[in-house]
Each structure stands twice: as C-alpha cells, then as structure tokens.
Amino acid sequence: MSVVCANSCGWLLDSCSLLDEGLQRCVSHSDGLDKPKYFKCCFKREYFNTVRPHVQIQQNTDILTSTAKHSSGEHAKIDLQTRKKRKRKRRDLNTGELDAHIYHGKIRLVVLEGSRALLEAGRQCGYLTEVLTAPPSESMPSHECRLAALCDMAKQLPLTDESLMAPVQMLNRDGLDPSLDLFSYITENPFDCTYEVTLMKEKYLLPPRSRFLLSDITRMHPLVNSGDKFDLIVLDPPWENKSVKRSNRYSSLPSSQLKQLPVPALAAPECLVVTWVTNRAKHLRFIKEELYPYWAVEVLAEWLWVKVTRTGEFVFPLDSPHKKPYEVLVLGRHRSGTDRAVRSSAVEELPEQRLLISVPSVLHSQKPSLSAVLKPYISPEPKCLELFARSLQRDWTSWGNEVIKFQHSSYFTRERAEEPSMTSETVIIQ
C-alpha cells in the first residue's frame, strides 16, 4: 500500500510502493525473439534511502572549512568579513524573503503538530526505523536523459496535418514500431501488464493502460485533439529559480507562459486541478491570483508535502532560513460556465489543509504520486492527466519533454517470472 497510515491531518506515504504497482507482470519483446520474456521488477529502493537530514552534511562541511580557514590569520580575517556580510543579509530581508517568512509563520505549527502523530504511527508499524539499511549492492545508475534535447530537435520538423492524423498510437504484440513518431502522437499501452519497449535505442517500462505524449509546450495539439476531458489534472511546472539556473539541470519556464497550457480545454466539469509550487511566495501568489482565475479554476485548498528521512526527521530544519522541509500544493476545481456541475455523491468535499509526509527521492524533482490520496475527491473511474511529468502511472495520461525519464529500465531491479497461464489477458497480449 502506498498509504502507510492516515489521520485527520493527512497521510504518511510510501512512494516506492505506488511506483511498483503494475510491475508484478512485465513483458518484453525488445530482443527481437518471437517468444516474449516475462519478468517482474521494482523501483530501486536506494533512491529512497535518505537516513540523515541533509543539513548535517552541510554542517560538517562548514566545520571543516571553518577549521581550515582559521589555520592562518589572513583566512580568519576573511571568514570574519564573510560572517558579517551574512548577518547583514539576514537582517535585511527582501520582499520575497519577507513574504516567505510570513507564510512559514502561518503554517509552522500545522507542519510540526500535524506530522507528529503520523510519524509516530510510522515508527510503530516499522516503516520509519532507527536501524540504518545496508548499502546497496550495486551503484545507482547515472543515466543521461536526452529526451528534452530530442524534443527541441523535433520542433524543427514540419507539423503533421491535424485533420488527417489519429492522435493515439497503440502498442501491439511486438511493442512499438521503431519508426513511429513519438513527438506527434499519444503513445498508449492498452494492456493489463507492463511492457518493456525500446525507444530511441533506450529501454523503458510502460505501465498498464498508461498513455504519454513526449513534447514541449509548443506541440500539445495531439493531447487536445484526442477529445479526452480529464477529472484530475496535476501539474509540476519547472519554476524559475536561482538554484536551477546555477545547476543547469533542466530548463525552467517563465510563470507567464504557463497560461498557454490548454487546461480549460482538457478539464471536465468540476475537474480537480493540483499544482506543485516552490516555496517562493511570488509563485504561490501567481497561481492563486493569476493562473487559476485565468483558467476558471476556483482555489479551494493548500496542502503541504513534508519531506522526512527514513528515521522520521525533517530533511531540513523546520525553521531553516534557506531550504524548508516542505513544498506546497494548490488545489482547485475548474468551473465551466456560470453553473456548477452536480457533484457525484461519491466525491468527498475537499479539505482545506492536509499534510503528505514521505521520504523524498534523491532523484531531482521526483514527486510522490497523488493518485491514492486524491481518490476520494474525484469521480469513480476518473480520467487523470499529469502535465510536466517525468514518469508514467497506471491508468494515467502524462505529458512533458521528459515524460518517460524515470521509466528508463536502469531505475528498476528485475527478476525472472514464470510465463503466465493461458488466460483471457494472455490472449489479448499475444
């Protein structure tokens, strides 16, 4: 189960468990053989093996650096000057820092008190433990993702005639035809098992009944042309910030360009829209005051993702002046027209505030799936869409210029599975 425990404050989540759903039966035809290979796999646990708060590593580094500097009088003088500058910066907060400080003051007790019972429950059931896990037997892969660069190259190709193209291409018995266009069509795995396919000379795992479009914001027309209306839309935008610019890990997107996303065209009546946002106050304000009103989305709630270690500590000090151990989610409903759609009696009222607590992945920007916690607040058998996705989910449609990044086979361990008996499912696949 992806939900370890829950109460009126929120949920403690096991992100890996949800990633593993649908991977108990996988099939591959990628070796060119007539007979498929069957196996089962799981996402590598070492990516979720944070056992100590990140700040301890930084503190140790600072101690060593400070000791080295004090070994000479000149370095001690420089260090004193640096500390004076840092003090001045702390006293003179700019507008954004002041807004963030005020926001933190409002939600500090919510995080502190709301997480206490959930973390204690996680310790009692053995999910959170003081026993450090053994180091992994194999090193974590350093797969270089070239998907965003390939999307940029695909933009140089002429657009296909939208009136003639079918927006969806399906996997068949042998997987995907390598000559198919991944940038102009939605690709779908219609089967009830995970398929390993070779895309652009790399192997990826496509979960059961998952769909994806690999493109950037200028090539979203296959998604709009599909005619699908979604009951849940989750967005994880690449927000602009100084850290991203320095690291050059991925391209960011100006806030104003988010308005170009065709969310109103993709949203069903009463669609639940959820957006991940950084702790910069201007981004939160932009979503609530500009973006959601522009999309006709009514803001209803702000939830918090609280990041903890395997031992149940915050990954950063709660009152750290720099990085916080939480991120914000803004939730709202799309209101089409002047009249609100009649909400199903099976759909619960959306609570204004909840905590999602989990051990974060060491992989950059890999967020926990929200499908389990949002299920009570959307219609039964919903259509779900993730925008700016970097992985796929069973029964979801996903879009982004790195949409299958974390589906690369190097992120998974595998073991052989017995060939399934002849069932109706097997007949469909073969």
Automatic annotation (TrEMBL):
Example GO BP: methylation
Superkingdom, taxonomy of origin: Eukaryota
Alphabetized GO MF terms: nucleic acid binding; RNA methyltransferase activity; site-specific DNA-methyltransferase (adenine-specific) activity
Region (Disordered): 68-91
One Pfam family this sequence matches: MT-A70
TM region(s), chain numbering: none
Compositional bias segments (type: Basic and acidic residues): 71-82
Cellular component GO terms held in the UniProt record: cytosol; nucleus
PANTHER family: N(6)-ADENINE-SPECIFIC METHYLTRANSFERASE METTL4, N6-ADENOSINE-METHYLTRANSFERASE
Homology family: Belongs to the MT-A70-like family.
The protein, known as: Methyltransferase like 4
Organism: Cyprinus carpio
